[in-house]
Structure formats: C-alpha cells, structure tokens
Amino acid sequence: MNKFLGKFGDEIYALLRIVAGYLFACHGAQKLFGALGGEQQALASMAGLAGIIELVGGLLILLGLFTSWAAFLASGEMAVGYFMVHASQGHFLTPINNNGELAVVYCFLFLYVAARGAGKWSIAAATGKSSLE
C-alpha cells in the first residue's frame, strides 16, 4: 500500500489538514452562531471562548495560515476540554464511555499538524513564507 499511497503523502496530509480544519470550524460555528444544529453560547463563557478558538483556529488550519500555532492552540483546547468536560463524567480512561473520543482524536490530530506545519495547498506554501506556518 505504501508504494501506491506513499507517493501521495503530501497531498493526503493536505486533505487531512483541510478537512480537519473545516470540521473544527464547524464546531466553532455551532457554539458561536447556533449553526448546524448547535446551541449558541455566550461569548463571555468557557464555551464561547472554545467556539472562538474552534472557528478561528479551524479556518487558519484549513487555509494553512499560522497553521502550527493555530493547531497547537486547538490541541490544547481539546486536551482541556477532555479533562474539564468529559473526564469529569467518569470513565477517565475510556473516552468512548464519557463521549470524549472526538476531543481526544482532535487533540492528537492537531498536535501532529502543529508539528508538521501547513504543508502543501496552504497559504504559507503559496507565499513561500515559513513564518506563516
């Protein structure tokens, strides 16, 4: 499989970054605007702050602009969210049972994106400025 998919590694990573950024931004839109079946949260609340990080961070990750910084912040937000919201419901080591599975996946996915940077199909790559990663 590596012989076939390996040559598309950069493109597959770009798709991962773009799709994950888009989906993360959708979670922010749910919290900030009540869009996509979500419930609007007060801006001056923990959920409101999470919504800002998710919307802005998700869009930056999607676009490949300040990607490493945005992804690192998003990863941290998901770690805090897991421990504050999900782990407190019990079943600390079983995210499936405390509905924290998505938070854990986002946490580690964004940690990987923070380490790898914007990559292909990004504003940083298009401008040739690594400072935008």
In short:
With 133 residues, the chain is mostly helical. Helix content is 66%, strand content 0%.
Protein model, in words:
The protein has 133 residues and is an all-alpha fold. The chain has one domain (9-127). Helix content is 66%, strand content 0%. It has six helices and no strands. It has helices at residues 2-5, 9-33, 46-63, 67-86, 101-116, 123-127.
Draw up the topology in text.
Layout: H1 2-5, H2 9-33, H3 46-63, H4 67-86, H5 101-116, H6 123-127
What are its keywords?
globular, mainly alpha, single chain, 6 helices, 133 residues
Shape: globular
How many β-strands, per DSSP? 0
User: What is the typical, i.e. mean, pLDDT?
Assistant: 94
Indicate the percent of residues in helices: 55-70%
Number of helices: 6
Rg, nearest Å: 16 Å
- Give the SSE order as H and E letters: HHHHHH
What number of domains? 1
Main pleated sheet: none
**Strand coverage percent:** under 5%
Would you identify the regions where 5 or more consecutive residues have pLDDT less than 50? none
Distance between the termini: 30 Å
User: What structural class do you assign from the helix and strand content?
Assistant: mainly alpha
